[in-house]
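Notes from hallway chat w/ T.B., transcribed later so I don't forget. T.B. wanted the structure written out for a chain they're using in a teaching module, and asked if we could keep both sequence and structure tokens in one place. Agreed to drop them here.
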Amino acid sequence: MSSILCVEDAEDIGHLLTEILGSAGHCVDWVGDGETALERWQDASLIILDLTLPDIDGLEICRQIRARDSLVPLIMLTARAATRDVVEGFELGADDYITKPFDADILLARVQALLRRHAKQGPERDEAPVHVGDLEIDIANHRAMLKGQLLSLTAREFALLVHFARHPGRGFSRGDLLDAVWGAEFDGFDHTVNTHINRLRGKIESDPKHPRYILTVWGVGYRFTDEAEAP
């Protein structure tokens, strides 16, 4: 049973989320403000976060959580549907972004899919760390280091990096990456991949405008450098 923190100030939606998730066997901790969320998020297996809260903006809550933890899955559930809001949410580290009004079955499917993927990203003790240039990807211990310095990556960023590292030199379309990292049931947009690639490049590349690890393949998508090309 997973513990899900729902951060939602609207009582009707809070009760609805509690009912939907509780009926699926999850333990739901519903809070109505950002301050309480920041006190309780560390006990959660997954966070569902509204952006418009009475005290702290949800984007700021996401920023603070990601500054302290790179793994906990986080879904933004909000009425903000503008492209700039969606992009900013992903840039701050959201794993998924769902707009209100929402379909209960789709929300639950997204939650279950994200929990499954997060569980699969657990320790794989038989998989040796990958070393490419100054980058070390320790899959077993779910961490990445650049020049010996630990990188702060979200769960999705790490999953994306691992997928690339397992297939050096192979080109992937944005659709390929959505299926492999987000799952075939994810109905997001290609710019979701672009946003995560840009964030990841910003963390592992010395010059993100001239990347040396995650390379653009024009007309295809992206590929990860192989050892022969490593900086």
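Follow-up for T.B.: The chain has a mean pLDDT of 87. Might be a good example for the class.
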